[in-house]
Design goal:
- The structure is a single chain.
- This protein is of the alpha+beta class.
- It is built from 4 helices and 8 strands.
- The radius of gyration is 16 Å and the shape is globular.
């Protein structure tokens, strides 16, 4: 978690502030219920029609998975988005709500990862800024990463990376 996300969620005061008001958004509960599947060497949403064969526009499988798994949290969480000069603007308070839902979603998503056979380590990436918020995931592979190790380099974005590593991997 970068400093901007930690400050926004106030995690240094405990994790109680991370729970979304009213719990995880219903639309996100539906999304996690969709499930994930292994298709060849990649993990994807069960409803995805994507195929990674040939990696047409991606350097590696990690980049492909990040692209295929990515979705906008603001499409699933009721917040106010205003338009300023034709660009969407999300307030700090609403970015906080999106981050809280992203973390809660990742925790629910972890159940899907723990159910995989064979077990696989997966990284979830939650990102919010003044124009949007995203959730994406990819398998953790040696030599492949989607995000820079220094999460604070993503300012002014608020970024949270959650690694899910089942004990049997």
């Amino acid at each position: 978690m970068n400093d901007a996300a930690a400050d926004m969620l106030r995690v240094l005061g405990g994790l109680a502030g991370v729970e979304p008001p009213g719990g995880l958004a219903a639309s996100l509960r539906e999304r996690v219920a969709e499930g994930i599947v292994r298709r060849g060497e990649v993990l994807i949403w069960a409803s995805s029609t994507g195929h990674a064969e040939g990696l047409p526009s991606f350097h590696d499988l990690t980049g492909w998975e990040c692209s295929d798994s990515s979705f906008h949290l603001e499409d699933h969480v009721p917040i106010d988005i205003v338009s300023v000069d034709g660009a969407p603007m999300i307030s700090d308070d609403d970015q906080r709500i999106l981050l809280m839902n992203g973390v809660a979603f990742a925790l629910e998503f972890s159940r899907l990862v723990y159910a995989l056979d064979p077990p696989t380590s997966v990284r979830c990436i939650v990102n919010a800024n003044e124009t949007n918020a995203t959730f994406r995931f990819h398998q953790i592979r040696p030599g492949e990463t989607w995000n820079a190790a220094d999460l604070d380099s993503f300012r002014p974005d608020k970024m949270i990376v959650i690694d899910i590593k089942p004990a049997r991997t």
